[in-house]
Amino acid sequence: MTPDTLFSLHGKTALVTGGATGIGRMAAEALVRAGARVLIASRKGAACEAVAAELNALDAPGRAEGFAGDVGTQAGVDALVGEVKNRTQSLDILMNNAGRTWGAPLGQFPFEAWEKINSVNVAGLFHLTQALLPMLRAAGTADDPARVVNVGSVMGEREMGDGAYSYSASKAAVLHLTKILGKELAGDAITVNALAPGPFVSGMTAFATADEEMRSKVGADVPLGRVGRASDIAGCMLFLCGQGGSYVTGAVIPVSGGINVMSGPNIFEKALH
Predict the structure, then answer these.
(1) Are the C-beta atoms of residues 43 and 4 closer than 8 Å to each other?
(2) Nearest to 12 by CA among 41, 34, 28
């Protein structure tokens, strides 16, 4: 086994939801560079088409296709599954990355922020995975399972609200669902794992990462001293989706620069200094 074969995705077909921007865009490029055929879907179909054109211009071994797809409703999930079936007969990789957030102070957080966030981040993720199970089952084998990669958040691991209460709770649900489905689908030769990212540059975090000065300030509060990079997501995806990840399921990879293990100061620190 060589590094080239360990992380190669030649001949694989992947679907990345929310793949036009942010972490989804980073993952889509990594999969294309590894040789996969990557279907990119989000609510903004034109943006997906533009990203696919950019990726196809890289002269990488893989190819990309972009189109509209909305996982926020049952009708949207059904339409997206139909579009995927029109484009491919097999699906080796599903990345559930589409997500929404909502911020408001405690005491002003609205009821509607729960349904709108959970319909995409939790219900949409679950129902899309469920609807695509026949295609994933058909692609997976004991030696080379089909792969599902869910995008959670470090806010789903740690007690962090930051005004995004429904988002944090939804991402905790994503991580729990990942473990449930990892257990239930192992016998079908499908692995289910999750990423739990910290701060990355994306449209969702633009309020805090829009320029280098802001990114430096955010990174200063991360134990490893920086915000996330595209290569951090790429490395995780190639591990989970390549041969190296074929024996891993139900795992949560904390791509958060150490935020996942922040627990406050040593309780004896002041007494000892």
Answers:
(1) no
(2) 34
Looking at domain 3-256, its CATH class is: alpha beta
Domain boundaries, the chain: 3-256
Tell me the C-alpha distance between 15 and 39, whole Å: 5
Q: How many CA atoms lie within 13 A of 229 on its CB side?
A: 7
Q: Phi/psi at 108 (nearest 5 deg)? A: -125, 5
Q: What is the mean pLDDT of residues 210-214?
A: 84
pLDDT at 47 over 90: yes
Angle between helices 45-56 and 22-33 (to 10 degrees): 30
First vs last C-alpha separation in the chain: 51
DSSP one-letter code for 41: E
Residue type, 199: P
Strands 13-17 and 93-96: parallel
Do residues 50 and 66 make contact, with C-beta atoms less than 8 angstroms apart?
Answer: yes
Task: List, for residues 59-84, the tens digit of each pLDDT value.
Answer: 999 999 999 999 999 999 999 999 99
**Run of H or E residues at 68:** strand 63-68
User: Is the overall model pTM greater than 0.85, yes or no?
Assistant: yes
Catalytic residue, from 40, 167, 233, 234: name it.
167
Sheet arrangement for strand 37-42: 63-68, 37-42, 13-17, 93-96, 146-151, 190-195, 252-253
Facing residues of 42 across strands? 68
Angle between helix 125-139 and 165-185 (nearest 10): 30
pLDDT at residue 3 in the model: 67
**Phi and psi (nearest 5°) for 95?**
-110, 110
User: Could you confirm whether 165 is annotated as catalytic?
Assistant: no
The H helix count followed by the E strand count for the chain is 11, 7
